Amino acid sequence: MAQSVGAETSQSPPRTRAPQRLPLTWLGVVPFFLFVIAFLFYPAFSIVVQTFLDPARNFTLQNVLDLNQPFILSSYLYTLELSAVTAIIGGLLGFLLAYAITIGALPGWVRSSLLTFSGVASNFAGIPLAFAFIATIGQLGLVTQFLRTNFGIA
């Protein structure tokens, strides 16, 4: 009996696997991946490549060596200092708001307003914040145009 079972299995054709297909649920993340490639990976890769090219598009290390100039180093240090100060101030203000919301005996409307403001403010950083400043007080910003038109301030 054992031999007959072995004989049947040895004569049966080998199993072929069906090709694995990507589930259609992955189709929903394709736009996200395209967005990440177009607006994150491509610009980052482009910056890295252009770091090692001169204006004539020849390979050079001079751009990297130029980073040791005093003006550029002082700009880095100033940026780090500004980042540290604003992070500390933001952290302290955030701590005070969180303390007031959780421990403080605030009226419901104040607590609700603070939570709403915190939710909106946390999403209004980086590029949207930079755009808001440019659109408000930039060369062609709303406030700049208002001051220029109504008060003659250049």
UniProtKB/TrEMBL annotation:
Check the record and name the InterPro entries matching this protein. MetI-like_sf
Cellular component annotations (GO), alphabetically ordered: plasma membrane
Q: Which UniProt keywords apply?
A: Cell membrane, Membrane, Transmembrane, Transmembrane helix, Transport
Q: In its UniProt entry, what is this protein called?
A: Acriflavin resistance protein
| Segments traversing the membrane | 24-45, 76-102, 114-137
SUPFAM superfamilies, sorted = MetI-like
Q: What is the organism of origin for this protein?
A: Kouleothrix aurantiaca
Q: What is its main location?
A: membrane
